[in-house]
């Protein structure tokens, strides 16, 4: 799992002024909407006795711990300790990690890492979101599989005729012509040609193409966990962005935003979401049963062919970021079944701004003094 990225952690329309627990990278966070409309994100770990702040309440934009009522500002500073008599100061160390948040493309994005603003990788550009020709629909599920297996599955063109039948291509003609991968620093994509479906498939009566043109699907990944699938149907375009949110290394919260140019009325949202779900459920048993469960670090540990080029480019780029120290060790996972004696957190930007405070901080950053797989792999 990679730190130092913006993660879309929740659909914006479900976030309100109540504290809400979200999980990502094997750690819990609390988010809530403030009175000015902005969203705050803190580590869900009270510095006093480790109470879950998300189980408390929000009073005047501060989250209040449910255990002894300590109050935290959205910058992570504790402002009130009710058990202290009036006049007693608040220790400087009484603060929790706060993470930068932006709201964009219908999602709440939290920056989970400690990079200063100018060094942070960008949020991918999603041009469809503000384009009136498109209608967005939102769908989510929990997958009992590693998020990288989930991500690779979507950029894997060759599985479609086997797992999805004639939904996008012709199972009788499963070959994938060589395609070219376009890469930038943070993403890669390709146009992949399929033989056209032999029958109308799931799109029913709407299939009207006279000539059997190849079906072109644009496919791509954006670091750290987003995949795009652009399907051109005879009657319009469907563009899916899947956010594969690593709850921990074994479980993935998949949040999908689907944009379509056809049937753009609200009345068609439910059936559009249902179609997304139907396709996803065809993938689920395959991905949940892949072994090894985790993506190998060594490229030669699995066999790749030409049609796997998008996956290979993902694995190569991932390795560069592991070498840069962005990998979060799986051995230190708050959501694993094993009880721990020390709670650690994803380091937030404030730790870099104030190294002295960071050293004294109660909760230590993830990966410190642990034998991370990244280091083991070297
Ligand atoms: S554990 Fe949060 S106030 Fe005591
Ligand atoms: Fe699939």
TrEMBL record:
Entries under PANTHER family matching the protein: BLR4922 PROTEIN (PTHR21266:SF59), IRON-SULFUR DOMAIN CONTAINING PROTEIN (PTHR21266)
Q: What is this protein called?
A: Rieske 2Fe-2S domain-containing protein
Q: Sorted alphabetically, which InterPro entries does this protein's record hold? A: ARHD_Rieske_2Fe_2S, Cholesterol_7-desaturase, Rieske_2Fe-2S, Rieske_2Fe-2S_sf, VanA_C_cat
A Pfam cross-reference name: VanA_C
Q: Where is this region: Disordered?
A: 337-378
Annotated ranges, domain Rieske: 6-110
- Annotated Basic and acidic residues bias: 365-378
State the species of origin: Streptosporangium amethystogenes subsp. fukuiense
Source lineage: Bacteria, Bacillati, Actinomycetota, Actinomycetes, Streptosporangiales
Record field: transmembrane? none
């Amino acid at each position: 799992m990679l730190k130092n990225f913006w993660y879309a952690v929740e659909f914006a329309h479900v976030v309100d002024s109540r504290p809400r627990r979200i999980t990502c990278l094997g750690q819990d966070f609390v988010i809530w909407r403030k009175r000015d409309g902005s969203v705050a994100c803190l580590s869900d770990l009270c510095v006093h006795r480790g109470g879950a702040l998300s189980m408390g309440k929000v009073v005047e934009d501060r989250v209040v711990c449910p255990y002894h009522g300590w109050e935290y500002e959205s910058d992570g500073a504790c402002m009130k300790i009710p058990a202290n008599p009036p006049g007693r100061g608040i220790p400087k160390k009484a603060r929790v990690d706060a993470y930068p948040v932006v709201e964009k493309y219908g999602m709440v994005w939290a920056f989970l890492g400690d990079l200063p603003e100018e060094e942070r990788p960008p949020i991918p550009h999603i041009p469809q979101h503000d384009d009136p020709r498109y209608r967005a629909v939102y769908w989510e599920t929990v997958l009992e599989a590693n998020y990288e297996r989930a991500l690779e599955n979507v950029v894997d063109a060759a599985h479609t005729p086997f797992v999805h039948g004639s939904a996008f291509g012709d199972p009788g003609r499963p070959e994938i012509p060589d395609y070219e991968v376009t890469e930038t620093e943070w993403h890669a994509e390709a146009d992949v040609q399929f033989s056209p479906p032999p029958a109308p498939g799931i799109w029913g009566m709407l299939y009207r193409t006279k000539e059997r043109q190849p079906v072109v699907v644009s496919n791509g990944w954006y670091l750290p966990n987003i995949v795009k699938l652009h399907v051109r149907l005879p009657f319009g375009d469907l563009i899916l962005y899947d956010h594969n949110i690593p709850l921990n290394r074994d479980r993935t919260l998949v949040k999908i935003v689907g944009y379509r140019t056809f049937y753009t009325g609200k009345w068609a949202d439910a059936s559009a979401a249902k179609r997304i779900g139907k396709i996803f459920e065809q993938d689920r048993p395959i991905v949940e049963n892949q072994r090894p469960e985790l993506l190998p670090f060594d490229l030669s540990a699995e066999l790749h062919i030409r049609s796997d080029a998008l996956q290979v480019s993902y694995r190569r780029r991932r390795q560069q970021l592991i070498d840069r120290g962005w990998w979060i060790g799986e051995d230190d996972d708050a959501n694993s079944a094993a009880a721990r004696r020390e709670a650690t957190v994803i380091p937030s930007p404030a730790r870099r701004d104030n190294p002295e405070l960071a050293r004294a901080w109660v909760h230590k950053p993830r990966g410190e003094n642990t034998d991370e797989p990244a280091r083991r792999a070297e």
